[in-house]
Specification:
single chain; about 110 residues; mainly alpha; about 60% helix
């Protein structure tokens, strides 16, 4: 028997007793779209060169609301990473980025 500490493993057997995080949880798209709107507005004021990333997030969430399918997490993750790299600590842009990252489980 192994004594290796598995830590926070969320596999099918759920070894380690870590917290569960379902990637298939129902998202509150309306609330996420509101946060994405506020992120884009904040980017316009703080980092105009990053507005395109905010608009990508808005478009993906709007597409999800329209077609009823889950949002494209890969595109959203890429846009959030671009913002997180450029945004300074303590800015509204970074706060909204962290909020979306957490809400989407990215």
């Amino acid at each position: 028997m192994s004594t290796y500490p598995f830590g926070d493993v969320n596999g099918p057997a759920e070894h380690g007793g870590g917290r569960r995080r379902s990637t298939y949880a129902t998202l509150d798209l309306e609330a996420l779209m509101d946060v994405a709107d506020r992120l884009t507005e904040t980017l316009r004021a703080e980092y105009p060169q990053l507005v395109n990333s905010g608009e990508i997030i808005q478009a993906e969430l709007a597409q999800s609301a329209e077609d009823g399918l889950p949002p494209n997490r890969g595109r959203i993750r890429s846009a959030l990473e671009i913002i997180a790299i450029a945004a300074s600590a303590g800015t509204g842009s970074l706060a909204y980025t962290r909020h979306l990252t957490t809400a989407l489980g990215l």
